[in-house]
Each structure stands twice: as C-alpha cells, then as structure tokens.
Design a protein that fits this description.
263 residues, alpha/beta, Rossmann fold, eight-stranded mixed sheet, 9 helices, 34% helix, disordered N terminus, disordered C terminus
Length: 263
C-alpha cells in the first residue's frame, strides 16, 4: 500500500510540471524587457544547453546583485521550463517584484551527480556572471531533493565560489562533511516527508557541527516534500542569504571533483 501511494504521488507531481513552469515564466511578463524570468542558451561541451535566469524588477547593470544558483529536483529533470517548475521558481513567481536576488536555474536531464554535471553547474554560473551584474562574493548555492544532494556535492567541490548553502529536503552525503565545514549551511525539511527521510538533513547538520562547521536545520511540521515556500515565508532565510559573504578558502582545501556514482 505504501509503495502504491508513493507511485501515485510521483505521477501527480510529474503531471503538472510543464504547465506550472509556463505559469512561472509568465509571472514576470509585466516586467521591463530583459528582466524577470528569461531563458538563455549557452554552449557547454560543444552543445547548446538551457539555463533560466531571474533578474529583479529593478535590475541595473550598474550595480552588483546577490545571487542564488538553484538546483532542481529529479521531478524537474528534462527541458523547457522544467527547472523553474518546482522549488524556488514558483516561490519567486508569487511575488516576483519583491525577490532581491539574481537567480540562476541550470537545467539537468537527471540528477546533479558526477563531474560533468558539476562542470555544467559551474559553467552556468560563469555564463551568468559574464552576462549579468552578479556579486561574486554573494552567491548562494541551493537546491531541492536531488538538487539538495547536488548542493552538498557541488558546494563541497567549490567552497571558494559560494557564500553559503541552502539544501531543502535533501539526501545525505556524509562523506563530504570535512569539506562542507568551509561554508555556512541552513537546511530545511518536512518532518513528514514521504520522499526523502528528514533524518538525512538531521545527520548532515549534526555531522557538520561536530566537525566544527556552521549548520542550522529548520524542520516544518506536516506532510510534504517541497517546502521551499515555507522556508522563504516562515523563516528569516532571505535575510540570512543576503547577509552571507564568501570567505577565502585555504589552499589545502582545494580538492578535485570526483563522484563516480551513476544516476
């Protein structure tokens, strides 16, 4: 019975993604041209790849903006508007004129595991920095579900590029804890998550703290998986992200990207 219920949950979640992503993209149609949700294509490994970017309503190339790189979950893998259809995209679309961050949404065909997808995320950030007025010292890496796992993995591989990590409803990656102590973390989950056991976030934050890092965890009561709306509206997450600044990373912490696990 439990497995059947979970299968139904997956089907329902997947069935509405295309429509929801389109609605998110249209939420800023009243913005000035070149701001709001915009789709861009750039070349990665000799192929055209998609990245969505949100630019604040008051965007000006003459000032630097804090930025969020958001990694979508497995439900949003694919193309089109999939990467903005869950997690942070719909939250921004609720009140887009109030969102203060440039937000970068790379589009994966699956999870974020492995060196190629690691390079793609960083290439997406590099592309966005070359095109838009991003403050390189105020970039937050965030994600949902498998995107939260990607946040742990890619954040651990590139602590010199990010000011903080926000994994939401993510899988555990305890083997990375010694590198994750270099970045401040605020994790979120639902206590009644039917997809990812919230003990994963609890274990990650506990291990980071025990190794001398800074990690806080907020758990919401109730049943659900995507709790990005709660994280934004029921905590001081936005203020926290605005306060974070990148810090120098010791040379001894420079570690090559290695993750042989397949999807």
């Amino acid at each position: 019975m439990g497995r059947n219920w979970l299968t139904i949950f997956f089907v329902i979640a997947l069935s509405g993604l295309g429509c929801r992503g389109d609605a998110v993209a249209r939420s800023t149609r009243s913005f000035s041209v070149g701001t709001g949700f915009i789709r861009r294509e750039f070349t990665f490994d000799d192929k055209s790849r998609t990245v969505w970017v949100f630019l604040p309503k008051d965007y000006s190339p003459n000032q630097k903006y804090p930025t969020v790189v958001f990694l979508h979950g497995l439900f949003e893998a694919g193309d089109g508007e999939a990467c903005i259809s869950g997690g942070l995209g719909p939250v921004i679309a609720e009140h887009p004129d109030q969102w203060p961050f440039i937000t970068v949404f790379p589009q994966s065909t699956g999870t974020w595991r492995g060196p190629e997808r690691d390079r793609f995320v960083m290439a997406s950030l590099d592309y966005a920095q070359s095109e838009f007025a991003i403050d390189p010292d105020r970039v937050i890496l965030a994600g949902l579900s498998y995107g939260a796992l990607g946040t742990w993995q890619i954040g651990a591989n590139h602590p010199d590029r990010f000011a903080g990590l926000v994994p939401v409803s993510g899988h555990r990656a305890t083997e990375l804890v010694e590198r994750l102590v270099l970045l401040p973390v605020w994790a979120f989950d639902m206590r009644g998550d039917p997809v990812v056991n919230p003990q994963s976030s609890e274990e990650m934050c506990r291990e980071i703290q025990q190794h001398g890092g800074v990690a806080r965890l907020t758990e919401f009561l109730g049943v659900g998986h995507d709790c990005w709306a709660k994280a934004v509206h029921e905590s001081k997450l936005v203020d926290w992200m605005l306060e974070q600044r990148r810090h120098p990373v010791p040379d001894s912490q420079s570690i090559a990207v290695t993750d042989p696990k397949p999807d």
